[in-house]
Amino acid sequence: MKKAKLWIKAMGMILVLGALAIGCNPPPEDVETGGTEHSAEAEAEDAKEENVKSFNADVTKEFMGVKVSIAEVKIKPDRIEVGMNYENKSGQSIHWYPDQEAKAVIGDMQLDSNMFLDDTGMTVGDISDGVKSDGVFVFRPAGNKTIDPEAVKEIKLSFGEMMSEDFMKTKKVELTVKVK
To answer: pTM, whole model, 2 decimals?
Structure first.
């Protein structure tokens, strides 16, 4: 009887994990991360979208020897898409999970990234020295709230804490983007 209950629980867990994996969305392909060239076709596509504000943030800051850059930002009524890249030049492995703690603040509204719904496409966790990675974070407002792209003047981004290889040093990864 115990084996049957254990088997049922295990199968239930497999089904839940499978549903979560199927529900994951790949990162948006039309947001520039700064890791590749932006095409003329992508720029023309951006111009076609209505009620969307798109710009190159051109924000770079170093945290514990890791250079973090924010490239293209797209502000839409239902989400903000942030293209980001990093390069670990610290001389050691860095522990960092930005996909678990990412959030954006605009005015008095906090938007969260959901690691189960959106795949950033970035390498996270134990990041070896010399590693470069890029991806797109998607931040959505809670419930049925919407964003007025024209009203957003500044975005405060937080990507959690980086930790040194020996876990003795930490640094919050926070950047502010002025909307252009």
So the answer is: 0.75
